[in-house]
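Fold it.
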Amino acid sequence: MKMTILRLFVLCLGMAFLPLCAAGPAHAVRIKDIATFSGVRDNQLIGYGLVVGLAGTGDKKDSVFTLSSMKNMMDRMGVGIDSGAFKTKNVASVMVTARMPVSAKPGTRLDVTVSSVGDATSLLGGVLLQTALKGVDGKIYSLAQGSLTVGGYSAGGRAASTSKNVSTVGIIPGGGIVERGIPFEFNQQDKLTLNLRIADFSTAQQIAERLNSVMGGPFARAVDATSVTMEVPPQHRNNLVPLMASVENLDISPDTAARVVVDEKTGTVVLGRDVRISRAAVAHGNLQITVQESEQVSQPGPFSQGQTVVSPQTEANVREEKRNLNMVEGATLQELVDGLNAIGATPRDLISILRTLQVSGSLHAELEVL
């Protein structure tokens, strides 16, 4: 009897969850993955500092700014030394950068990136001295210091050298400590704005309708292709975290314009899901021209008064592939891919084919070349 009741309970529980599972739209993504909330952002910090403790891989002796920085630091510490006595091979001038969230409070740890600005060959094993990080307003928001983590190395001699990755950039995990918070009262807002990463009117309107259906009232509206404003319901005033957690996890189906992205530097071609091609006949053949230069040496006969003559020779070969016309049509992305593959074109060839199809009006998508 107990087992029967338990089975009925499990069956009813499973039936109760079926509507929730079926409610999500096809190809659904969360709002948090395609949009950001205004005010919830990072602030960039920057500072100038010195890295010490390098094994002879620091800035050279003619680095004026490194020498000046070392002398100023020593003067502040009460050590008076002539700048000509400094040897900076174990010291490097660096720029220090960090990203500070708007919600960071004094004492929050930040990861900092350290980059050489002189002619140092490696920052491996170095230690960053205390560096003030400032915001765009010129105020100090964080202090950074600590040992660097470098993901590469560089070594060499007079005749050969070897290197791996970049050794003049390093990071200090948690090396920055926030000293001043950004004056921003998050919970005092009466209105929230969602900013879409990719502008689209259909997606913006869909987000507004989804928010209104969940909150049970006309709280949200699409302002333009990238912004959706939302009035904060009375029950969430001065307590926006539960509202934000609910909103950012709502599922929608983003609708974007058909686009083909081409990177000519690497030969990469990416076709979006909604790319379509009208019926067209395509023939694509490669033209290869080879030019080879050589020199023919003519020697005079024995005991003759002639001279050795060098005459250049040029040989040119032209080879053109013969290919027949192929019908290309794409009502779906799979049909489009199959049609382009039938031509037997390489990624480099596809770039020319897609450009030509766009000029002919057969390609119904935006072609973007990186």
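The chain has three domains: 42-153+164-178, 185-252, 260-298+308-369.
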